[in-house]
Design a protein that fits this description.
Layout: H1 2-26, E1 31-37, H2 50-56, H3 63-66, E2 67-71, E3 77-82, H4 84-91, E4 96-101, E5 104-107, E6 137-142, E7 183-188, H5 191-197, H6 215-224, E8 228-233, E9 236-241, E10 249-254, E11 256-257, E12 260-262, H7 263-276, E13 280-283, E14 285-286, H8 296-306, E15 310-314, E16 333-338, E17 342-343, E18 345-350, E19 355-359, E20 373-377, H9 398-401, E21 405-409, H10 415-424, E22 429-433, E23 451-454, H11 456-471, E24 477-482, E25 486-487, E26 515-518, E27 522-525, E28 544-547, H12 550-567, H13 573-582, H14 605-608, H15 615-618, E29 623-624, H16 629-638, H17 643-650, H18 657-662, E30 673-678, E31 686-696, E32 702-709, E33 714-719, E34 722-725, E35 731-740, E36 750-760, E37 765-775
Parallel strand pairs: 6-10, 6-13, 7-10, 13-15, 15-16, 16-26, 20-21, 21-22, 22-23, 30-37
Antiparallel strand pairs: 1-3, 1-4, 2-3, 5-12, 5-14, 8-9, 11-12, 17-25, 18-19, 18-24, 19-23, 20-24, 27-28, 29-31, 31-35, 32-34, 32-36, 33-35, 36-37
Bound molecules: 2-acetamido-2-deoxy-beta-D-glucopyranose (NAG) (3 copies).
Signal peptide: 1-22
GO biological process, one term: proteolysis
Active site: 142, 215, 551
């Protein structure tokens, strides 16, 4: 009797819980918060676990079920759905240090319609198939993984490293035997996602580490895919596919679902990855920029870096405008995207004989060679201009479009989705034309019908040709000539149009992105259940696919970081980043300054940071600019964050008195230097200084001499001008004084000048960009 009433009670309680969590999905005032528990608060012994204690902070009886995740490695606390009043009462509890509202993030491919597009890489060959890097584990926080891909085979790979504590978590269509000696761990985190959206639809996504999107499989194989030959997608980019670190191990942490990637899940992935023992975390995901103490990616990354884990993150695809860079915390390595010297040309031939060049990776049945097809612009033509032809679902009239090549404008719906709309309406081909905002940046997509993308100038020519034909009552015609894969393209690299740019919106003293890496038209592994265009009706299967985005650039750096860590096990995450930055290059394969794809103009430090990564040189940088967590704490102090806010990031009580003595944020021992001068009416000296410390990681008894390329109109002095290192590991300081004259600027405007500081011992060249920005207050 007693037993059955207890049973009844439990049942009742758990169904009450169910009702409460279900209603919290529909109640818009209930939101997910990440709750930090004071680093020095001690769990009262009445609670058997941290989770019980955390649940006790929530008032209702359903407390335990409302905890989404508990965190203990990179963060101390938990996440839960809270009403405004519950959030307030939690804040008042003595052991609660902070409440961080959740953000929803998204992956950084250009597949998302809001982004512009671009190109690819073959980074094979750096260290061949030696065992190099096989002890290193790269954790990829993304959309999961398709474990059966050849890129993840474990032939000739040794046993799992003994330090590994991770797991292969089973779920939908993903038995725990899905992992092997290459893919050594897989987990999924969906509590935050489901708390907001309700239980996921398991017929459209896998409630497991299996990838139902393709993005995570692609990024994981860029970082550490095995050599696979022949690799290609729809016949394009034929050759050997390989990740940057082909022998490194992979662990997949799935946090991104159909409606995005939720912070509470991302933080849980960081927590698990660091506890599992990864060496590198690769994160091709981002959202809006917030102060570091409200940014769970910055918080998770700090905990990872403190444990010696290198974190690389994509800069975002919000370019080419300024101030668009994301994932900017100074302990994260922020990666923008460049092109490679391979592209996929396609010519649009117009009836009057003109050729407009574009790009395409269409690989199905083609247009009849030599035949011209009627051409139509699907916006309303004529009048004072064109109304856009967006080729949205249902917007095309089959009677007008049938048998024709349709010109669609970039924007709103995804590039591949436009092709699907044209095909459904009976169109025979598509020309995807950039508008002024898109400029000349082009992304090659695996379209479902013969299609080519053209830039804004070419797009205008085609639109004008159609309009002229309409006025003269003649029939506009065109065809598309696919030219396959072209290699040896010059110039390359070029900063990809979409790649997000500086200045850094939170800490202008820290130049972001740090570096760029290949991110346009990248060939990498792809799941079976998603067609290469990514749209649901596309039933084609490809082992590989070509994607573009800073999402694709980031895992190049993650793989490279694993190789550097294998070569230099003692290097900190900051040392690895320093090696990548000080050896990066800023000239293209013509020997000229790298260009910006969006404008064709020379690009700047705000576009590429220190430059494009140079794997071979990064292995032997000579000197490094190292950093510890104490330096980051000083930096946060000098950024005027309160000690409470600093504690949210660092999980420690910060003593800022020492940091204030150390000076200013520009003194963070970063491999790049940036200062902003505010010009207030009165003539006065504009000067500042930077203190830097370099560590000799080259040879003993080396002498480095400085050379300075000052920004125009700026006087730069370095003291001393010579650094004499007796031994390896020795650290020496130098001081950089910067003095500028006032420049004529209109109120509210600014002017940026760039230069560099270069240390050389005759063998190594250690380069740091130096940026001086003059601002005229309003
Ligand atoms: C799940 O998705 C499938 C396929 O789109 C759909 O048919 C089904 O109705 C969905 N189920 C729910 C519960 O939404
Ligand atoms: C490119 O350079 C030209 C000439 O210096 C300049 O007029 C133009 O504004 C630049 N375009 C962009 C987008 O910066
Ligand atoms: C921090 O505050 C000090 C004193 O008010 C000020 O001089 C300094 O510029 C501030 N630093 C930042 C990064 O805002």
């Amino acid at each position: 009797m007693a037993l059955s009433s207890l049973f009844f009670f439990l049942f009742f309680l758990s169904s009450a819980l169910w009702v409460s969590s279900a209603s919290s999905v529909s109640d818009p005032t209930v939101k997910t918060f990440i709750v930090q528990v004071h680093p020095d608060a001690v769990k009262p012994s009445v609670f058997p676990t941290q989770a019980h204690w955390y649940a006790s902070s929530l008032s209702s009886s359903s407390a335990a079920d409302r905890i989404l995740h508990t965190y203990s490695t990179v963060f101390r606390g938990f996440s839960a759905r809270l009403s405004p009043s519950e959030a307030d009462s939690l804040r008042a509890l003595p052991h609660v240090a902070a409440l961080i509202p959740e953000q929803v993030r998204h992956v950084h491919t250009t597949r998302s319609p809001e982004f512009l597009g671009l190109k690819s890489t073959d980074s094979a060959g750096l260290l061949k198939e030696s065992d190099f890097g096989s002890d290193l584990v790269i954790g990829v926080i993304d959309t999961g993984i398709w474990p059966e891909r050849q890129s993840f085979n474990d032939k000739e790979i040794g046993p799992v490293p003994p330090k590994w504590k991770g797991e292969c978590v089973a779920g939908d269509n993903f038995p725990s035997t899905s992992c092997n000696r290459k893919l050594i761990g897989a987990r999924f985190f969906c509590a935050g996602y489901e708390a907001t959206n309700g239980r996921m639809n398991q017929s459209t996504e896998f409630r497991s580490p299996r990838d139902s999107d393709g993005h995570g499989t692609h990024t994981a194989s860029i970082a550490a895919g095995r050599y696979v030959f022949p690799a290609s997608t729809l016949g394009y980019a034929r050759g050997v596919a390989s990740g940057m670190a082909p022998k490194a191990r992979l662990a997949a942490y799935k946090v991104c679902w159909n409606s995005g990637c939720y912070d509470s899940d991302i933080l849980a992935a960081f927590d698990a990855a660091v506890a599992d023992g990864v060496d590198v975390i690769s994160l091709s995901v981002g959202g809006v920029v917030t102060p570091y103490y409200l940014d769970s990616i910055a918080i998770g990354a700090y905990g990872a870096v403190e444990s010696g884990v290198f974190v690389s993150a994509s800069a975002g695809n919000g370019g080419p405008g300024g101030l668009t860079v994301t994932n900017i915390a100074p302990w994260v390595t922020t990666v923008g995207a460049g092109t490679i010297d391979r592209d996929f040309p396609a010519d649009v031939k117009l009836g009057k004989g003109r050729i407009v060049s574009g790009v395409s990776i269409y690989g199905g049945p083609g247009l009849t060679p030599g035949r011209m097809y009627p051409l139509i612009y699907a916006g309303s033509e004529g009048g004072d201009g064109y109304s856009a032809s967006l080729c949205l679902d249902g917007s095309l009239d089959p009677s007008l479009v049938k048998g024709k090549i349709v010109v669609c404008d970039r924007g709103i719906n995804s590039r591949a989705a436009k092709g699907e709309v044209v095909k459904k309406a009976g169109g025979i081909g598509m020309i995807l034309a950039n508008g002024v905002f898109d400029g000349e940046g082009l992304v090659a997509d695996c379209h479902v019908l013969p299609a080519a993308s053209v830039g804004a100038v070419g797009g205008d020519e085609i639109r004008k040709y159609i309009e002229a034909a309409r006025k003269s009552k003649s029939l506009p015609t065109a065809t598309i000539i696919f030219k396959g894969t072209r290699v040896g393209v010059r110039p390359a690299p070029v900063v990809a149009s979409f790649s997000a740019r500086g200045p850094n919106p939170v800490s202008p003293e820290i130049i972001k992105p740090d570096v760029i890496a290949p991110g346009l038209n990248i060939l990498a592994a792809w799941p079976d259940n998603v067609g290469p265009s990514g749209i649901p009706s596309d039933k084609r299967k490809t082992e590989f696919n070509i994607l573009s985005g800073t999402s694709m650039a980031c895992p190049h750096v993650s793989g490279l970081a694993a190789l550097l860590k294998a070569a230099h096990p003692e290097w900190s995450p900051a040392a690895i980043r320093s090696a990548l930055m000080t050896t990066a290059y800023t000239v293209d394969n013509r020997g000229e300054n790298m260009l910006d794809e969006s404008s064709g103009n020379t690009s700047t430090v705000m576009d590429y940071g220190a430059g494009h990564v140079h794997p071979q040189k990064a292995i032997d940088p000579g000197l490094i600019y190292d950093l510890t967590t104490y330096d980051y704490i000083d930096f946060l102090c000098n950024s005027n964050y309160t000690t409470n806010n600093i504690r949210v990031v660092t999980r420690k009580k910060a003593d800022c008195s020492g940091a204030k003595r150390a000076g200013h944020t520009g003194n963070l021992n970063y491999p790049s230097l940036s200062v902003t001068f505010q010009q207030y009416g009165i003539k006065h000296k504009l000067s500042s200084h930077f203190i830097r410390t370099v560590t000799n990681v080259g040879e003993a008894n080396s002498v480095y001499k400085v050379s300075v390329r000052p920004p125009s109109g700026v006087k730069v002095m370095v003291e001393p001008e010579k650094l004499v290192f007796r031994r390896v590991g020795q650290r020496l300081n130098f001081l950089v004084r910067v003095q500028s004259h006032e420049v004529k600027l209109s109120p509210g405007s600014s002017s940026m000048r760039t230069g560099s500081i270069i240390w050389s011992d005759g063998k190594h060249t250690v380069t740091s960009p130096l940026v001086v920005t003059m601002q005229q207050p309003l």
